[in-house]
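Chapter summary example.
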Amino acid sequence: MALKTQLLLVLLALAGTQPALSQSARKGWNPMEFRKPSDPQLRRTLTPLQYDVTQHDATEPPFHNEYWDNHRPGLYVDVVSGEPLFSSLDKFESGTGWPSFMKPLEPANIHTRTDRSLFMARTEVRSAHADSHLGHVFEDGPAPTRLRYCMNSAALRFIPVERLEAEGYGQYLPLFAAARDSTRRD
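The structure predicted for these 186 residues follows.
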């Protein structure tokens, strides 16, 4: 995007006539540049389900969400900030109807806290920079971590491996090349 166009969009956003470009609409992820959009901006840029999940800790229905059965290689990033969260290389079939991962791609991009909302203690997972509610982590996953990061698709944006470079996440391409090479050797 040309610098003049970017400047115009920023000025319009500041004037309240157009939502600011989210981090995920720009190329890549830079925590030094991320500023969480205002609540009105989030309401304009997210779907109602994305807004409810990320901003009000809602849970989408199992088996009726975008990524529970996605088997394509790529990255899952925060729908609000674009911060990289999970890799398809760590995704597994949990049978729960939500996308599940053994571990985060970038541990610094998530944080956890105790959630007592359903009369039990669970561990909630949130994105570190946008503070988006992502889902919960449980200790019933596969080896080697035994963890199951059970995430809401509505909190995630999937970037297929063939789009990583174009969207500014090219630094993660070697992960997929290494996985492809090890599969060929087996």
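To summarize the output: The mean pLDDT is 86.
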